[in-house]
Amino acid sequence: MSMKQEIQKLNNCLDKCQHKLNSAKSRGDNELISRFTDEIEKLSKKVSQLKHKQSYDLSKERKTLLDMPFSREITKAEQADMGKLKKSVKGLIVVHPMTKIGKELKLKAMTGYAPKSF
User: Fold this and answer.
1) What are phi and psi of 81, to 5 degrees?
2) What is the CATH number of the domain that holds 56?
3) Is 114 helix (H, G, I), strand (E, B) or coil?
4) Mean pLDDT, rounded, of the chain
5) Nearest 5°: phi and psi at 49?
6) How many whole angstroms separate alpha carbon 24 and alpha carbon 34?
7) In 13-43, which positions are buried (b, 16+ CB within 10 angstroms) versus exposed (e)?
8) Which of 4, 36, 85, 97 could form a disulfide with 102 if both were Cys (CB 3.0 to 4.6 A apart)?
9) Alpha-carbon dihedral sign for residues 83, 88, 90, 95
10) pTM of this prediction?
11) Mean local confidence (pLDDT), 65-91
């Protein structure tokens, strides 16, 4: 299961527990209240750990891209024939500005990162 799906699943469980806690509070059932508060704490801790790991992985990927010696914007002609460009440049990584990593890098246009100039 991907990290995104796991976070979504945990958030759904957290939401269910929150609703059950509210109904238990309205009934005054102390045993269920304590059980659901413990469950909510456990789930929210797990969600925060996963979100932290996700941001750590993203910043690690960002750092590896920034450490590459060469980067430049990809022209429209190159974007039209991306397969040819990737075959001609070994180790080319293309980042779109609307992806997570693109937003992290604050890109304005599609950019290519490579170990040597292209």
Assistant:
1) -120, 65
2) 1.20.58
3) strand
4) 93
5) -65, -45
6) 10
7) bbeebeebbeebeeeeeeeebeebeebbeeb
8) 97
9) negative
10) 0.73
11) 91
- Asked if residue 60 and residue 3 are part of one domain, the reply reads yes
Q: Give per-residue pLDDT as tens, 32-57.
A: 999 999 999 999 999 999 999 999 99
Q: How far is Cα 91 from Cα 117, in angstroms, rounded to an integer?
A: 11
37/24 Cα distance (integer angstroms): 11
The dihedrals phi and psi of 113, each to the nearest 5 degrees, come to: -120, 135
Cα dihedral angle (19, 24, 25, 27), rounded to 10 degrees? Answer: 130
Tally the domains of the chain.
2
Residues 98-116: tens digit of each pLDDT: 999 999 999 999 999 999 8
Q: Name the residue among 17, 10, 20 with its Cα closest to residue 51.
A: 10
Question: What's the token pair of residue 2?
Answer: 């991907």
In the sheet that 93-95 helps form, which strands lie side by side, from edge to edge? 70-73, 111-114, 93-95
